[in-house]
Amino acid sequence: MTIRHHRAVGAVAAAGALALALTACGSGSDDPGTAQEVSPQDVAAALEEGGELLVWAWEPTLDQVVEDFEAEYPNVDVELANVGTGNDHYVALQNAIGAGSGVPDVAQVEYYALPQFSIAGSLADLAPFGASELDGTYSPGTWNAVTDGDAVYGLPMDSGPMALFYNAKTFEEAGVEVPATWDEFLEAARAIHEHDENTYILADNGDAGFATSMIWQAGGHPFAVDGTDVTVDLADEGTAKFTELWQQLIDEDLLADVPGWSDEWFQGLGNGEIAALVTGAWMPANLESGAAQASGDWRVAPMPQWTEGANETAENGGSSLAITEASDKKALAYGFLEYANAGDGVATRLAGGNFPATLADLNDEEFLAEEPEYFGGQRINEVLSASATGVVEGWQYLPYQVYANSVFPDTVGQAYTGSTPLADGLAAWQESIVSYGNEQGFTVTE
Amino acid sequence: MTVLASPPAVPQTARRMRRRSRWTGWGFVGPFMAVFALVFLAPIAYSLWLSLFQTQLVGGTSFVGLDNYVRAFNDPQFWSGVGRVTLFLLVQVPVMLGISLLVALALDSGRLYGRDFFRLTIFLPYAVPGVVAALMWGFMYGERFGLVGNFNDLLGWNLPAPLTSSLVLPAIGNIVTWEFVGYNMLIFYSALRVVPASLYEAAEIDGAGPWRVISAIKLPAIRGALVIATIFSIIGSFQLFNEPSILQPLSPNYISTHYTPNLYAYSLSFSGQQYNYSATVAIIMGVLTMLVAYVVQLRGMRKEA
Amino acid sequence: MTNVLLTAPTTRTRPTRPRLRVRRSSHARPTRSVLLTVLTALVGVYALVPLVWLLINATKTQPDLFSSFGLWFSGDFALWDNVVGVLTYDDGVFGRWFLNTLLYVVLGAGGATLLALLGGYGLAKFDFPGKRAVFAVVIGAVAVPGTALAVPTFLMFANLGLTNTPWSVIIPSLISPFGLYLMWTFATEAVPDEIIEAARIDGAGEARTFFQVCLPMMAPGIVTVLLFTVVATWNNYFLPLIMLRDPDWYPLTLGLNAWNAQATTAGGEAIFNLVIAGSLLTILPLVVAFLLLQRYWQSGLAAGSVKE
């Protein structure tokens, strides 16, 4: 299939790059200096020589990838550890880096958290390993997220171009058309809640990841980062579009006050009382296992648009694999990264339900033609892949987004309880972001 | 004061024996204190050290003297947390210890049917891991699909949602009470069990009724257990962390990152990597807690005097 | 503060009149009260309702879990399937977690009880330099919030090379301040000084006096402290979360949490039914332990009461 073909091309391209970069010192052994080029041969030699590799990740499909990888490179022993999900994982990583011991060679890092680790110098730049050659391999949204100028801090593992997941049965019962624009979405929200007071179009009680993705889609650029100079503006035009719409949804009580991923949430997704989700393309697998009783009811539509007929979307979630600066087996680690996120590992993960970040797979006919029963045989990947092509460019996360997201409920979240307008909540969030940034030595301007 | 503060009265012979081997006691206390020094004192000393510095993501570490302490004293987020746990302390601890004491007295009275059964069931919640407790209470408190919702639907009630309103503090108080009633009950109960029979005999001779026995013999006899349980409950309240932290994902807008001082210290340290300021908050809380415990101790003794 | 906290608070002078070995007759067999039983039962119900929820929901399949009334059975009775699922999921990693927990409990709670026993006895029966400071220091240290100490502790343990080993969980669980207090109280109450004196006069060393004469008398206290430390170690969550990175060393609580969090990740499989059934399996050994300890406890109490 295309993946193999693509990989062969990639290898040839990399070999060509090597021929040009003959000046590179072929030390072949463990730790390359940061500026040193590392040739594919060096990586291949490291894979041949083998050794132990510690990988921290919670992505479930990596189990199989590791197994296959070890079969292909019998001298390499990969220890895959799930040290927690999301924040727990970052805490562990931060602690290990702080202590300078027990740091993994490879770590899963979500796109939004990458800048936090790269700016602290905790992650290795993969450009000297030839990662720059992979430009064009991944969807622009994900590639943009792992790069900073010429530096590459990770290889994209999966992606989350956003789409509208909706329960067709609930929509039908309420006699509501699938909304194509956000105006229609507001109408649909009213109609659905009016039809049954227990039913809501969305569950949202304030989620930083979702809100930032919404602002992203609306064309907002609230965060601009240049080295340690940070600009924050949570009242720009794009942000204002989101604020206005969401304020209406909140005021009219059209959002279910159910926290995401709680059992109530899964219950609502299963019984139709939460009629839709605007979220990343990785959602299908979660719906299938968490809301199994609604099998056949769910469908996927393009993300509602601000301008009719446009195809503007954003990324939500998704993660990369990165190599830590502390690792003394970077060449070997890069071999694993390449295998898992650009090589044979990709197909393995897709088979396990991952949504690809690789363009070749996003456009793969077999992938596009899948007709999952859960979605009533709809070719959902066509919709989701199309979303990946519409991701609005130029988005940046803060170099301390993990912290910023943690105080989102303290500030913006208050608007969801009705105690303060959303715009004020965002202003309060901005205030925390600015004061924290300045405290931490960044130069933050508003 | 003197009563509590003086060591148990011992016969003169014992005194003499002991003077011969004054360091023998350390042979028994030493192992505990050695491990204690490693896992408590050393980290505290380290925290004191940390609290004098500031580490930035950009710019590294610098000595800032008492700046962190000044900042904490002017930090409204910190003090609102202190206020909240103080309120919690004043309401929840008396309720919890009251129930524990009543149940312990009931068990000890021997007037219950199925005493062993109750002792087990009431203690059981203490055995439930926090993760599991969060699952259970998340369900119970659910307004839409949970038990509160079920009752509202079935009976036409209009119970407020415990996790999406100002009721969140009582909701946490309920969980803490649920978890620790049995624990404290067991402390009181085991203290009651070692009340010397001779005291009861004396009461019997005096012809005292059950209430008189409780107030004149049982309560004074377990005063020490009561005071120490109160002190540990105060420490527990001031360190309130597990329950709000577990419920936070279910009620993020009502349980802020600075909901309790300990949660604040945790967020500072783990989300914000402000280890220095976090250590400062922890130390101030430690000192505050000791002060309050001290006052309670004084009061407990005044009553006895 | 020092003065205040250093004495076992249940201290009081012994009755001086001659002790008669009279059974607590009226106290042991009072008339039973229905009213009192009903009132206690209310507290019992309060304690049990959430556990009943756990028991009922452990019998449900994943879809039934979210579509049925929580306090009643529904759909297929899937308890057995769930239990088998728990024990076999991910190559039976639950069994590994169970053994880890057992290891932490045996060494951690056992060690904590032993240290508390020795320390409590030392405080109760000896005068030694620095004694007045011991308990004050312990209480003072306990007053500092542990969550904020987690990072310093982690960094220290990392320097000692202890993180991500069982020792990083076991060593901190060796300290039970409340256990120390309880043992101190029990030793003060349950071991008469005269008996220690008698043993010494007979020429027994301190160690022999302690192990052969005093230890049996402190049995009820030991069992109580053991119960508390076992439960605390069994449910230990925060510390292992910070210290352990290798799932092969996880205790049950961390493992269950990992399973619970699994549903919240992209592509993760929701296994709430296994989380709930696993929780039930996690609690069961504690219930059994309590029932077993209770027997010793009863006999220990009986032995203790003989002294009077």
Offer a concise description of the structure.
The complex is a heterotrimer of chains A (446), B (305) and C (308). With 446 residues, chain A is α/β, with parallel strands linked by helices.
Care to describe what's here?
The complex is a heterotrimer of chains A (446), B (305) and C (308). With 446 residues, chain A is of the alpha/beta class. Chain A contains 21 helices and 15 strands. In chain A, a hairpin with a 2-residue loop joins strand 4 and strand 5. Chain B has two domains: 40 residues, no CATH class; 254 residues, MetI-like (MetI-like fold, Orthogonal Bundle), CATH 1.10.3720.10. In chain B, 72% of the residues lie in helices and 3% in strands. Chain C is built from 15 helices and no strands. The longest helix of chain C is centred in the N-terminal third of the chain and has 47 residues. Chain C starts with a helix and ends with a helix. The N terminus and C terminus of chain C are likely disordered. The chains are: A alpha/beta (446), B mainly alpha (305), C mainly alpha (308). Chains in contact: A-B, A-C, B-C. At the A-B interface, helix 4, helix 11, helix 18 and helix 20 of A face helix 7 of B. Chain A: Pfam families: SBP_bac_1 (PF01547). Chain A: This is Sugar ABC transporter substrate-binding protein.
Label the structural class of chain C. Answer: mainly alpha
Radius of gyration of chain A: 22 Å
User: Biggest sheet of chain A: strands side by side, in what order?
Assistant: 2-1-3-14-6
Q: CATH fold name of the domain at 95-308 in chain C, please?
A: MetI-like fold
Uncertain spans of chain A: 1-34
CATH superfamily of the domain at 95-308 in chain C: MetI-like
CATH class of the largest domain in chain A: Alpha Beta
- CATH fold naming of the largest domain in chain A: D-Maltodextrin-Binding Protein, domain 2
Structural class, judged by helices and strands of chain A? alpha/beta
Reading the helices and strands of chain C in chain order gives: HHHHHHHHHHHHHHH
Output the keywords.
heterotrimer, A: 446 residues, alpha/beta, D-Maltodextrin-Binding Protein, domain 2, 2 domains, 5-stranded mixed sheet, 3-stranded antiparallel sheet, globular, B: 305 residues, mainly alpha, MetI-like fold, two-stranded antiparallel sheet, 3% strand, disordered N terminus, cell membrane (chain C), transmembrane helix (chain C), ABC transporter permease (chain C), MetI-like (chain C)
